[in-house]
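[Discussion] Sanity-checking designs against the backbone

I'm trying to build intuition for which residues belong where. Below is a structure token string of 763 positions. I'd appreciate it if someone posts a full sequence so I can compare it with mine line by line.
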């Protein structure tokens, strides 16, 4: 079992790996070469870099205390009790080999050693090492930033002990939250070999087809099923120096052409290395983004590519979108067809050389480069007949692997092996696929907005299906039907979760709320808010356990549903917040009530505690619309309780939530509705003064002040003496305050602005 990890090399990757391991609660020793004035200077700098990194490298900066720093001359013996040592030093074989020679006589016999090299062959690194060392050695290639990119490529050698490989795979998946892929010991492994080839092709074809950087990024992002950063923004984030280094190494190691245009090399020479240097393919000028004109190497105002034909395609599923994208007219279509043809051809040619199966190829590009679907799934989406024609159009021979395919690379739960036969898709232990459940006929109830699925063992799952999983009338109606179904059919409990890549739920359906407000349909709005509150409470008071499995964006109403669950099984990357104040409202699905209840209950056992501290804490959380940057921070903020659990790996989230239901079910009893202590006029006076002081200091607007006063009124329980009230009393106050604010012109302007731009309006 891995209980302590050593990382040698405190550069960007090494410090990022150390931060990830520490975020998982594992002690880390972080070493680097000695400095001159301060012997630990470089390791210290690495730790400081990780603490200052944006996006944050640590899930909670306080966990940096798990990291012990030192240098490789004075403190190598700190690695003696480590169970796994990751080498992440300079990308040259000789220093790595010298380090391994020193480690071999120092580490305990069971210690695993791995290299984070991005491409140096393992066989080269192992020259001169003993049989015992070789058995405990492999490549572990993390992707930058290690916290956020899901992929961890494992590169075993023929001598790597299978037990060592399995131990690292298990630790990587369950403890560090990575998606692990076995790669062959070939230059660039899987993801970089194919991903970097695609980037080089995009740069070259941009010149050939006369496109701009803005146009290429508009075409090679979500339109193709790739991340928003597309081609050039991704390169800026990675670093142009890194791109130059990797392409040079791949060219030298493979003998293939990875040449970048001369103007890219010139940018590197001039220090225009991307995000870290303030300029690369893009540059920010007075808050505005400017784009490089590669012909002049000058920056020009960014030109958004927003053509009607592109807008019409964006929201289509990939299988419908991709064929139409490649049919775009003019230079855009010509560019995309050639890019797809060349990258698909290269993938088909190299897959067997670099991977053990094509499933690993797809996973590597999905997890390492953020593709919606990997290259083989994308080829299936296009259709193999169309792919044959596309290759022929560009003078490319159909590779042997394509000729082996019988209509598709994936068929009915099988995939095409390199041997030409179809094999069952590998089952990942502890992973539940909702997509697979649907294909197996496990859907119990279904509507356009949501569905109820059978997870097995008497556990059901409610899945939202709206855009960004927004909660509206249809979702709430399906929730009520699902709760009734689970009880009537004798299921033991319910999970609420989904497989959306971005959002558990971005909150209530703001467009519908604004429309009803503008029409003046206040009775309908009051009923809708009451129904939302009822739905939240039903999660808590149903006669069986309800476990919510939030991840990613969990905002507004999505957060309120989460707060009312019997238990939460959250993904570590949880961005949770009651953000209604940002659109001129307050949480009215039980969120305001719930935060007051939680924080006052926390203080109740301490007679000397000031009860106003709980009120103030809830006010600050709601009025400032604070959002967590991880599940660990969500716990500190009060959105998660001590009994709520965290899954480091999103792939295991649904299965972990199901397990939690099964734990709670045997002796489950719903809780009694609580009585809540409110402080009345005393708390309200304090909060009113604080809001007024912020307005006087010019830190908030008049409308911000009004929102703050409404939040204060609810959290104080209105005017009057301190007393105990029911949940219903506070829910009534929530609803009244929500409708009052919604009736104001400024709140409606805020909602309209957010719906149009995705950004808050301060008016």
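Best answer:
Here's mine. Compare freely.
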């Amino acid at each position: 079992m891995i209980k302590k990890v050593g990382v040698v090399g405190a550069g960007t990757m090494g410090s990022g790996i150390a931060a990830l391991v520490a975020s998982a609660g594992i002690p880390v020793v972080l070493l680097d070469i000695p400095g001159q004035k301060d012997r630990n200077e470089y390791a210290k700098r690495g730790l400081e870099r990780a603490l200052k990194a944006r996006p944050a490298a640590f899930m909670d900066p306080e966990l940096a205390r798990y990291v012990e720093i030192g240098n490789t001359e004075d403190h190598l013996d700190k690695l003696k009790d480590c169970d796994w040592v990751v080498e992440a030093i300079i990308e040259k074989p000789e220093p790595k080999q010298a380090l391994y020679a020193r480690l071999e006589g120092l580490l305990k016999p069971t210690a695993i050693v791995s290299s984070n090299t991005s491409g140096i062959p393992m066989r080269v690194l192992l020259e001169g090492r003993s049989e015992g060392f070789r058995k405990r050695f492999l490549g572990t290639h993390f992707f930058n930033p290690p916290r956020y990119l899901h992929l961890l490529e494992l590169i075993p050698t023929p001598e790597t002990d299978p037990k060592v490989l399995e131990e690292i795979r298990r630790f990587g998946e369950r403890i560090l939250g990575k998606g692990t892929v076995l790669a062959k010991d070939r230059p660039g492994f899987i993801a970089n070999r194919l991903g970097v080839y695609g980037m080089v092709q995009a740069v070259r074809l941009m010149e050939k087809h006369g496109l701009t950087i803005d146009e290429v990024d508009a075409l090679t992002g979500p339109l193709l099923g790739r991340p928003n950063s597309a081609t050039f923004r991704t390169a800026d984030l990675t670093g142009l120096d890194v791109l130059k280094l990797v392409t040079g190494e791949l060219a030298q190691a493979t003998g293939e052409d990875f040449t970048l245009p001369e103007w890219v090399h010139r940018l590197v020479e001039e220090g225009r290395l991307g995000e870290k240097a303030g300029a690369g393919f893009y540059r920010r000028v007075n808050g505005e983004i400017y784009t490089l004109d590669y012909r002049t190497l000058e920056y020009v105002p960014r030109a958004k590519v927003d053509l009607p034909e592109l807008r019409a395609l964006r929201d289509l599923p990939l299988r419908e979108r991709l064929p139409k994208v490649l049919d775009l007219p003019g230079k855009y279509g010509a560019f995309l067809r050639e890019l797809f043809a060349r990258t698909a051809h290269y993938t088909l040619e190299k897959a067997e050389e670099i991977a053990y199966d094509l499933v690993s190829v797809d996973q590597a590009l999905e997890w390492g480069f953020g593709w919606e679907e990997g290259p083989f799934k994308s080829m299936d989406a296009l259709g193999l007949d169309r792919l044959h024609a596309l290759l022929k159009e560009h003078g490319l021979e159909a590779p042997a692997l394509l000729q082996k395919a019988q209509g598709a690379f994936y068929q009915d739960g099988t995939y095409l092996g390199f041997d030409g036969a179809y094999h069952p898709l590998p089952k990942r232990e502890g992973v539940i696929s909702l997509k697979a459940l649907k294909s197996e006929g496990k859907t119990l109830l279904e509507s356009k907005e949501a569905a109820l699925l059978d997870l097995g063992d008497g556990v059901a799952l409610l899945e939202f299906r709206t855009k960004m999983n927004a909660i509206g009338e249809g979702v709430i109606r399906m929730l009520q039907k699902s709760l009734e179904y689970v009880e009537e059919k004798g299921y033991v409990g319910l999970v609420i979760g989904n497989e959306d890549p971005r959002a558990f739920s971005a909150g209530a359906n703001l467009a519908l709320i604004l429309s009803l407000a503008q029409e003046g349909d206040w009775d309908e709005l009051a009923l809708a808010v009451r129904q939302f509150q009822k739905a939240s409470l039903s999660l808590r008071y149903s006669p069986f356990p309800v476990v919510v499995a939030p991840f990613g964006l969990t905002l507004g109403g999505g957060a309120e549903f989460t707060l009312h669950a019997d238990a939460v099984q959250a993904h570590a990357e949880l961005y949770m917040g009651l953000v209604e104040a940002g659109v001129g409202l307050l949480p009215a699905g039980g969120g305001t009530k719930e935060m007051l209840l939680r924080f006052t209950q926390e203080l109740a056992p301490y007679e000397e505690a000031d009860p106003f501290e709980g009120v103030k804490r809830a006010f600050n959380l709601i009025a400032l619309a604070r959002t967590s940057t991880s599940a660990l921070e969500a716990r500190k903020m009060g959105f998660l309780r001590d009994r709520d659990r965290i899954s480091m790996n999103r792939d295991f989230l649904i299965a972990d939530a199901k397990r939690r239901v099964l734990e709670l079910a045997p002796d489950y009893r719903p809780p009694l509705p609580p009585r809540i202590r409110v402080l009345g006029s005393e708390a309200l006076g304090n909060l009113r003064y604080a809001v007024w002081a912020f307005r006087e200091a010019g830190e908030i607007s008049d409308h911000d002040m009004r929102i703050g006063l409404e939040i204060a009124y609810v959290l104080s329980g209105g005017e009057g003496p301190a007393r105990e009230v029911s949940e219903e009393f506070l829910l009534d106050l929530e609803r009244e305050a929500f409708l009052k604010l919604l009736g104001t012109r400024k709140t409606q302007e805020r909602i309209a602005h957010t719906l149009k731009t995705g950004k808050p309006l301060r008016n």
